[in-house]
Amino acid sequence: MTTAEIELPTSRAATLSTSTTMKALVYHGPDKRAWEEKPRPAIQDPGDAIVRITTSTICGTDLHILKGDLPAVTDGRILGHEGIGVVEQVGTGVSEFHVGDKVIISCVTACLKCDFCKRGMYSHCRHGGWILGYTIDGTQAEYVRIPQADGSLHNFPADGDEEAMVMLSDILPTGFECGVLNGQVKPGDTVAIVGAGPVGLAVLLTAQFYSPAAIFMIDLDDKRLAVAKKFGATTLINSADGNAAEQVMKLTEGAGVDVAIEAVGIPATFDICQTVVAAGGRIANVGVHGKPVELHLEKLWDRNISLTTRLVDTVTTPMLLKVVRSGKLQPSKLVSHRFATDDIMKAYDTFENAAKEGALKVVLLNGGPR
Amino acid sequence: MTTAEIELPTSRAATLSTSTTMKALVYHGPDKRAWEEKPRPAIQDPGDAIVRITTSTICGTDLHILKGDLPAVTDGRILGHEGIGVVEQVGTGVSEFHVGDKVIISCVTACLKCDFCKRGMYSHCRHGGWILGYTIDGTQAEYVRIPQADGSLHNFPADGDEEAMVMLSDILPTGFECGVLNGQVKPGDTVAIVGAGPVGLAVLLTAQFYSPAAIFMIDLDDKRLAVAKKFGATTLINSADGNAAEQVMKLTEGAGVDVAIEAVGIPATFDICQTVVAAGGRIANVGVHGKPVELHLEKLWDRNISLTTRLVDTVTTPMLLKVVRSGKLQPSKLVSHRFATDDIMKAYDTFENAAKEGALKVVLLNGGPR
Amino acid sequence: MTTAEIELPTSRAATLSTSTTMKALVYHGPDKRAWEEKPRPAIQDPGDAIVRITTSTICGTDLHILKGDLPAVTDGRILGHEGIGVVEQVGTGVSEFHVGDKVIISCVTACLKCDFCKRGMYSHCRHGGWILGYTIDGTQAEYVRIPQADGSLHNFPADGDEEAMVMLSDILPTGFECGVLNGQVKPGDTVAIVGAGPVGLAVLLTAQFYSPAAIFMIDLDDKRLAVAKKFGATTLINSADGNAAEQVMKLTEGAGVDVAIEAVGIPATFDICQTVVAAGGRIANVGVHGKPVELHLEKLWDRNISLTTRLVDTVTTPMLLKVVRSGKLQPSKLVSHRFATDDIMKAYDTFENAAKEGALKVVLLNGGPR
Amino acid sequence: MTTAEIELPTSRAATLSTSTTMKALVYHGPDKRAWEEKPRPAIQDPGDAIVRITTSTICGTDLHILKGDLPAVTDGRILGHEGIGVVEQVGTGVSEFHVGDKVIISCVTACLKCDFCKRGMYSHCRHGGWILGYTIDGTQAEYVRIPQADGSLHNFPADGDEEAMVMLSDILPTGFECGVLNGQVKPGDTVAIVGAGPVGLAVLLTAQFYSPAAIFMIDLDDKRLAVAKKFGATTLINSADGNAAEQVMKLTEGAGVDVAIEAVGIPATFDICQTVVAAGGRIANVGVHGKPVELHLEKLWDRNISLTTRLVDTVTTPMLLKVVRSGKLQPSKLVSHRFATDDIMKAYDTFENAAKEGALKVVLLNGGPR
Q1: How large is the C-alpha radius of gyration of chain B?
Q2: Strands B257-262 and A306-308: what pairing?
Q3: Helix/strand/coil for B110
Q4: Is D167:D202 a contact under the CB 8 Å cutoff?
Q5: What is the mean pLDDT of residues B59-79?
Q6: Which of D259, D326, D330 best probes binding to B when mutated, by most B CB atoms within 10 angstroms?
Q7: Contact indicator for C139, C93 with CB cutoff of 8 Å
């Protein structure tokens, strides 16, 4: 303790184990990842917290990084931006969390003080935003340093389930904010969700908070569509034959849908959305796009539609937490596979073959599956 | 009167002049228009009103029709969807207007009863929408038949000025609803308006209802920009050199604008909007587009922006009327030229050479300029 | 038909039975009601429709009238403002409904044309509002005249159930608009509903459209509370001992509730609402009040609360219809008793003794219970 | 400096003058105030800043304190919650402000981290809210300690005027948030403001951001009404004869106003508001109330009104700052008197006799009036 105090003058230290290293999932350039020894993180700024990870998970974005699509991620970076853990150490500027607190880690880091944070746009925080497992080391490790901890952690509820709660790190607020809130889903609405991957399913689960009358789920994969059916989709549309939009228009008697939610990120799926949106409707983009799309303003200019984009702000995490605790939402439904954290390399193998493996969210449990 | 009652069992007839013909501006295919004799309109449905036009004006859309861009307009159609006049006759289903009432004619016809009208989307009325001077005969004539009169007329205020009020037929609600309301202009905002033609200027005038801090006006024509300056633009940007977007970004220190309003209708001007919109900002499309645009979702997906389209609903006309009456808005500023209705052919010549003539709105006055 | 055309020049007549009288529930001053012979209604205005009633129901307001609380109701008035029926005749100004259409009658009559209707405030329609069974004859009869039919009727869905749909005449839109929408119920909210009578239960059912985390139901009657439990209340509070507010504060750890909904109409229940509303919360008044209340502005001025009042506008009936059709809401749950219309005197007896009889909504079926 | 560093390990100290005392306006129980020597404040928490005051002002609330109305204020308290100054010292947790920064002090202290702050309700911050010059020492002094500095200060703009900017500490956000925003003032609205004191005038100035058609100003004092006229009120009503409500109803032809704003805080003025609010209108309470009011729910239950209360959150200060900088608002209009800070006792005398002195805001300038 004495040593820690000397070394870490800006933190209130906890009883740390004497080891100074840890295991972590490290990116070493395109297609190269390793579960290897790394130094344990330390407090660098008064707002930091060190969290010991108990549960984490893998995101589709982690696969994008591994393909080399995000050049900002450099060799040696620890991946992961989702997780549950226990606070081990806090900087002197941290006031809302204490050593020993069990916490949900938000994928977005928020200083709360900048103009964007004050407007609720944590995604564009001038001192944070999405940085975890991207420009700083992430959560697929035994320990992680969380900057701006007061804006980036949430108290884990006493009655919580780690598998369920880790869905609050990213996928549920992403589906809810970018898809459902931006799409302004209302009671009685007809909603089309294009893409039944994990994030599309998160949209599906959270859209039901607002009691839409019909939810059309559109995907190429019948297995995923079958899951969507169990999760509350009212109509399944396999888009393999290229006439998904036509089917939607037929089902809506030519009117189109009130809300079309893009949860894939390619021109073809965006195109379905702009074709099926009703006059007065909303297109909410959730997918991460790598290319421009052709927007048919010559057809849409007089259709009174809105189109939104959004990087998740995680401002609704407290609301989602309340809904999960009330039992109205079971996010653990999204978990298809469980691995011990030490088996993370196998977990990645599974997630990389999601279609074949029927994988949705793959959860990594410290100490292995329970 | 007796005869009229027999002939027009669905209307309460007024004392009509005995003539059964009138003069009207008639479309005869691309580039062909004539000011010629036509039969006077008669009540066809219980909801109709016949209005004697006292003031009308020409819209950019009328020029589009004359170019042959709107094939739904057929040979023999009387043009015009804007006007002030006096009610001469009403159908038995008309309850809000009476013979002798002076009225503002809305460019959009609204039954008020269909699902779209009930949602305030008169533009998509199942029995109306934009039909005047498009699929039915319009207002550039001595008389016009207004279907769904109760939803398509507004009482002319006792203290009103016809030149000012005729701007409420189309251009002011268009600029306000499609640009300002959809763009959610707020006090303190920075707004860019691309296009300083009449509709862009209508956006400029009505944007000031919400006290934005800065309004950048972007156009190729310095004369129009000079008008914009007089109308309240805080910064003028001539886009002729192709670096308007760059200038906006420099002026905003790289942040971009809160609201970018497209008031032209071509890919190049849309592109300025998507380049200059700030994270968290809104793009409001007002322009009529004939081609698709390339939407840079690969840059915008994580920028938390919204993009809206809209055909004017004219639901805000009562609000605009109150603001005009209060003196906070002088729409007659938009009038650059005045002609007697009989000189409408010359008025079209002038409006067709708007740049050269410095024409904004060209007003047609029954009995000539006063 | 010929005769009808002569007699009813403003209507398109259907084949009417030759009888010119009907049975109706008639108010004859305080505490006096009779099921007696009355002349059948006839078209009076072009916007009228004559509807043959197939199902109706009794409202708490009907009991108020019978107590003499609403002096605007005069001797001889046919009561009732809820019902399902079939259109028998329409005026020439009616465009959306036709003879033979099965319809839901809205308790509020809307011209759709006045300033209030255009703003969606049908309750204050200058030519309608609540008039049915109040200032004009109502629906507890074999036939009823519906003025402004295009704004006051809704198409009965092909797959609809009359018992369920009659709840859309008044009680569901009342609970939803005045309670849930005005209270801005959001996912995760804690809601207190004071009053578990039919309208309070309608609030309870429709509040669940927005997935609140907790709904406290407060009433004096354990039987009603037991019903509330079945309908989705998460916590029941019997207010008989006068410490309901205290219990709510304890359950919320002193914070109070996000939304407090008053569904009774007396000072004591309003007082519970103002005591339990959290800082930043909303009080939505649904109850009909006969006396002023004491508003504790000395405690509330700095609590950032809102308080709303509303007479139902029925603007959400189309939305509610969609939700009912989707199966997310079973309004027939609200029906506790069924009577043949001929037994309406007994139905009133039952409804007047609601507590003893366990009565919620008492439905009157033409031809008797099925 | 060495000493300071030892004593203040949580701060980055600036070069302080060697004196350890300062002058301050101190409350010594009802009706007792003194401009006396006090110890200079020091950093107590990592989030603190010490600000040297250059301009401050007196609020009506300070007079309430001096009357003994706020018993939470204890003997020895330095008053004042408004001010402009220069940062002299910051705690280690302060990241947005630095020694030497010129700042606007917000009357509300916001931690930004608690649930209320995250919802934008700084007024109810769990670690702040209104505490300055209330439960901790305030700004009517040479120096002040500002806790939670990152949430409670704003950068003073380079081109700013101190007299104008000090109105952003309290009075402008109070008028704007509690009156204008809560009252949802819209273009074309008719607004009644009851009370033409400084806060009512702040409502008047900021209401004009939204271009209402008419603003009725109601007060007992013709001098204040004359000021209101200059500030943009369209109609003045002296309420001395007790028939202000009657006049408003007459002026609005019986309709009442869209927005009624209470800016006094007594039952009689609240009563005017509830009498004149139109169906569908809003009552926004700004006044600080000491007693309950009688709310006429028996008249209002079916009028579709809303009533709001609010303690200023100061969340709109950045927006207001933009509007002030744009020149659309001249808050220095509110300044009627200027005193040197050393003459604060005289300044209080003047402000205490506001009616006689024609005092609005009384500004205290370090070094005296310029």
Answers
A1: 21
A2: unpaired
A3: coil
A4: yes
A5: 95
A6: D326
A7: no
Maximum distance among all Cα pairs of chain D, rounded to whole angstroms: 73
Residue numbers in A near C328 (CB within 8 A)? 187, 211, 213
Q: How many CB atoms are located within 10 Å of the residue B305 CB?
A: 23
Q: From CA A162, how far away is CA D242, in angstroms rounded?
A: 65
Q: What one-character-per-residue DSSP string does C68-101 give?
A: T--TTS-TT-B----EEEEEEEEETT--S--TT-
Secondary structure in 3-state letters for D203-237: HHHHHHHHCCCEEEEEECCHHHHHHHHHCCCCEEE
In 3-state terms, what secondary structure has residue B200?
A: helix
Confidence band (pLDDT; 50, 70, 90) for A159? Answer: confident
Assigned token pair, C215: 């709904």
- Give the number of other Cβ atoms within 10 Å of residue D116's Cβ: 22
C306/D304 Cβ within 8 A: no
Structure tokens at A13: 């230290």
Indicate yes or no: CB of A124 within 8 angstroms of CB of B280: yes
Give the pLDDT confidence of C3-39 residue by residue, as tens digits: 333 333 344 544 445 689 999 999 999 999 999 999 9
CA distances from C313 to C182, C186, C316 (A): 12, 21, 8
Return the pLDDT at D19.
Answer: 81
Distance CA B193, CA B261 (A): 5
Distance CA B37, CA C321 (A): 51
Nearest alpha carbon to residue C296 among D293, A312, B341, A226: D293
Q: H/E element holding D143?
A: strand D143-146
Distance CA D59, CA A179 (A): 46
- The answer to whether D345 faces chain C, any CB pair under 8 Å, is no
Kindly report, residue by residue over D256-294, the tens digit of the pLDDT. 999 999 999 999 999 999 999 999 999 999 999 999 999
CA–CA dist A268, A63 (Å, integer)? 21
Residue C128 neighbours by CB distance under 10 Å:
25
**B265–A contact, CB cutoff 8 A:** yes
Contact B279/A116, CB-based, under 8 Å? yes
Nearest CA in chain A to D94: A93
Q: Which two tokens stand for residue C146?
A: 């519906």
Say which residue the tokens 């509690």 belong to. D178
Extract the tokens encoding A56: 């984490």
- Which among B189, B240, B195, B239 has a CA at the least distance from the CA of B215? B189
**What's the rounded Cα separation, in Å, for the pair C46 and C111?**
12
Indicate if the alpha-carbon torsion angle B28, B32, B37, B40 is positive or negative: positive
Can you give the pTM of this predicted structure? 0.94
CB contact under 8 A, C188 and A323: yes
Contact C57, C199 (CB under 8 A): no
Residue B239 φ/ψ region, left for φ over 0, alpha for ψ in the -120 to 50 degree band, beta for the rest: alpha
Closest chain A residue to B293, measured at CA: A295
Q: Which candidate, C306, C329, C323, places its Cα nearest to that of C182?
A: C306
**Residues in chain A, total:** 370
What single-letter DSSP state applies at residue A179?
A: I
Closest CA to C339 of C176, C197, C163: C163
Q: Are C302 and D107 in contact (CB under 8 A)?
A: no
Separation of alpha carbons D195 and D203, rounded Å: 10
Enter the ipTM.
Answer: 0.93
* CA pair distance B56, B126, nearest whole angstrom: 26
User: Cα separations (Å) of C330 from A232, C157, C231, C322, D261?
Assistant: 18, 15, 10, 12, 42
- In this predicted model, what pLDDT tens digit does every residue of A108-121 receive, in sequence order? 999 999 999 999 99
In B, minimum Cα distance to C114 occurs at B96
Residue corresponding to tokens 């005051």: D53
Tokens of C97: 């409904």
CB-CB contact of C186 with C212 (8 Å): yes
Alpha helices in C153-243 (DSSP H): 162-165, 171-173, 198-207, 222-231
